[in-house]
Amino acid sequence: MLLPDGIVGTVITTYTFHHVPDEEKWDTIREMPRILKPDGKIIVADVRRTGSSKRYNHRGAEENLQKARVGVPV
To answer: Which of 33, 43, 47, 52 holds its CA 20 to 30 A away from the CA of 12?
Structure first.
Protein backbone atom coordinates (compact mmCIF):
# COMPACT_ATOMS: atom_id res chain seq x y z
CA MET A 1 0.00 0.00 0.00
CA LEU A 2 1.59 3.24 -1.10
CA LEU A 3 0.75 6.34 0.89
CA PRO A 4 1.35 9.93 -0.21
CA ASP A 5 4.30 11.84 1.25
CA GLY A 6 3.78 13.52 4.62
CA ILE A 7 0.32 12.17 5.33
CA VAL A 8 0.59 10.48 8.75
CA GLY A 9 1.42 11.84 12.18
CA THR A 10 2.73 8.60 13.68
CA VAL A 11 4.07 5.31 12.35
CA ILE A 12 3.79 2.49 14.89
CA THR A 13 5.04 -1.06 14.51
CA THR A 14 4.74 -3.38 17.49
CA TYR A 15 6.10 -6.92 17.59
CA THR A 16 6.00 -7.34 13.82
CA PHE A 17 9.28 -5.94 12.49
CA HIS A 18 11.18 -9.17 13.19
CA HIS A 19 8.85 -10.86 10.67
CA VAL A 20 9.97 -8.55 7.86
CA PRO A 21 12.56 -10.37 5.70
CA ASP A 22 16.07 -9.01 6.24
CA GLU A 23 16.36 -7.90 2.62
CA GLU A 24 13.24 -5.72 3.06
CA LYS A 25 13.97 -4.17 6.47
CA TRP A 26 15.86 -1.08 5.25
CA ASP A 27 13.31 -0.45 2.50
CA THR A 28 10.64 -0.52 5.19
CA ILE A 29 12.59 1.83 7.46
CA ARG A 30 13.29 4.26 4.60
CA GLU A 31 9.61 4.40 3.77
CA MET A 32 8.59 5.48 7.29
CA PRO A 33 9.99 9.04 7.23
CA ARG A 34 8.64 9.62 3.72
CA ILE A 35 5.02 9.24 4.79
CA LEU A 36 5.43 11.23 8.03
CA LYS A 37 4.27 14.77 8.55
CA PRO A 38 7.22 17.10 9.37
CA ASP A 39 6.66 16.78 13.13
CA GLY A 40 5.73 13.07 12.94
CA LYS A 41 6.95 10.28 15.19
CA ILE A 42 8.14 6.74 14.52
CA ILE A 43 7.61 4.15 17.25
CA VAL A 44 9.11 0.67 16.91
CA ALA A 45 8.73 -1.99 19.58
CA ASP A 46 9.90 -5.50 18.91
CA VAL A 47 11.51 -8.55 20.43
CA ARG A 48 15.24 -9.02 20.66
CA ARG A 49 16.75 -11.91 18.81
CA THR A 50 18.74 -14.34 20.91
CA GLY A 51 20.89 -17.22 19.80
CA SER A 52 21.57 -15.54 16.49
CA SER A 53 24.70 -14.17 14.92
CA LYS A 54 22.74 -11.06 14.00
CA ARG A 55 22.43 -8.42 16.67
CA TYR A 56 19.88 -5.68 16.65
CA ASN A 57 20.18 -2.74 18.99
CA HIS A 58 19.48 0.96 19.13
CA ARG A 59 23.07 2.07 18.51
CA GLY A 60 23.17 4.06 15.35
CA ALA A 61 19.41 3.88 14.89
CA GLU A 62 18.89 7.64 15.06
CA GLU A 63 21.76 8.27 12.66
CA ASN A 64 20.44 5.64 10.25
CA LEU A 65 16.94 7.08 10.46
CA GLN A 66 18.30 10.53 9.59
CA LYS A 67 20.16 9.04 6.64
CA ALA A 68 16.99 7.27 5.49
CA ARG A 69 15.06 10.53 5.81
CA VAL A 70 17.35 12.23 3.30
CA GLY A 71 17.80 9.18 1.07
CA VAL A 72 21.39 8.31 2.03
CA PRO A 73 22.08 4.55 1.80
CA VAL A 74 22.70 2.96 5.19
So the answer is: 52
